[in-house]
Amino acid sequence: MIRREDGAGGKYMTEFLRKRIFSRLDSRAGEISLSDMEDSADFDEKYVFTTDSYTAFPPIFRGGSIGSLAVCGTSNDLAVMGAQPAYMSLALIIQEGFDEGTFERIMDDVRYWSERIGVKVITGDTKVVEMNAGIFVNTSGIGVRNEALENNLRVLREYRDYPYRWVRDRGLKAGDAVIVTGNIAEHGLAMLLEREDLGFEVDVESDVQPVWFAVKAAMEVGGVSAMKDPTRGGVAEALNEMAEKSGVGILVEEERIPVRDDVKGVCDALGLDPLTMANEGKVVMGVEGEMAEDVLRVLRKFDESAEIIGYTTDEFREVVVKTRIGTTKILPWPTIDPIPRVC
């Protein structure tokens, strides 16, 4: 039986993919294979390709809509490879009787974000169904090589042998700084509060936005070795995946993790860990240690809450958190989805 956890990010989804899909399908068109589980894969020296499906409920929420998620999320999967988002497809599955006003708002968001990012929607498909679906959105995207990526790789290779043509989530080495580009957990919490009247007085909206412009600026400085956008499974998922693939450990300082006090307070009250909650406009970024402060400085021009949260190490292979009281604990892979259907 297929469980909800099998598609929620984290440990169980990784096991599901390896057992049910990669055992049957594992091909490559460039340096990145299907089983590498990167955010995108290359099919040419100049291009990367990604696809994603969005099932967010409700389809319009604080700070955005499923249309915002589709365009920004797909663009972000390209951007964290170092690719400039360029082209997209858009496929819609719409329940018969779906509200026209809601649909118009979703499409307005698609137009707004595609124009702002500079990505062209060039093909698509639409189906109307009788089932209780609401609206599902599927997108694919193509990203292209660019001068910022080339500069980043050139700077990074002044410090190490970096064998990849793109920024890979397995590119960390001991001594790299780990940066989170802004406050976390806001998308997941905003979606939860949109659904439930929980009585909390907290002004929080989804962080859905394109990360390309911040990523481009960071690469223009150079030294970015690995990137991941912490969507399903949150920062905990991204850190564990990057550490495991790179063969390094990551030591994180809890007090440096950027999370708003009111967001953390609501999460604590509900028994939720901000580190496992979905984000839709942030990046977990590895940076060559000597370049980290320069990269952080430019990232703070886009979000002043960006922070170096820790460093990689060869002393262990886990993700370890140094708590505010000075103890340490292992940060495990997430195993369940605390808030389903958020992206």
UniProtKB/TrEMBL annotation:
<dbReference type="Pfam" id="PF02769">
    <property type="entry name" value="AIRS_C"/>
</dbReference>
<dbReference type="InterPro" id="IPR036921">
    <property type="entry name" value="PurM-like_N_sf"/>
</dbReference>
<dbReference type="Pfam" id="PF00586">
    <property type="entry name" value="AIRS"/>
</dbReference>
<comment type="similarity">
    <text>Belongs to the HypE family.</text>
</comment>
<dbReference type="InterPro" id="IPR016188">
    <property type="entry name" value="PurM-like_N"/>
</dbReference>
<dbReference type="InterPro" id="IPR036676">
    <property type="entry name" value="PurM-like_C_sf"/>
</dbReference>
<protein>
    <submittedName>
        <fullName>Hydrogenase expression/formation protein HypE</fullName>
    </submittedName>
</protein>
<dbReference type="InterPro" id="IPR010918">
    <property type="entry name" value="PurM-like_C_dom"/>
</dbReference>
<dbReference type="GO" id="GO:0051604">
    <property type="term" value="P:protein maturation"/>
</dbReference>
<dbReference type="InterPro" id="IPR011854">
    <property type="entry name" value="HypE"/>
</dbReference>
<feature type="domain" description="PurM-like N-terminal">
    <location>
        <begin position="44"/>
        <end position="144"/>
    </location>
</feature>
<feature type="domain" description="PurM-like C-terminal">
    <location>
        <begin position="173"/>
        <end position="321"/>
    </location>
</feature>
